[in-house]
Amino acid sequence: MEIKDSGTRREFDTGAVRDIQEGKGRCDLLPLDVVSDLAHNKVLHYIHAFTFHNDVLRLEMALKEFIVNYTDWCPDGYYLSQGVTTMLLEVSKHFEEGAKKYGEYNWQKGIPTRCYIDSAVRHYLKWLRGDEDEPHDRAFVWNIMCCIWTCKHKPELNDYLVVQNDEIKSPCPNRIWFGDYALHYCDKDHDICEDEKNCKYRSE
Question: Which residue in 2, 44, 164, 179 could disulfide with 36, CB within 3.0 to 4.6 Å?
Answer without folding.
Answer: 44
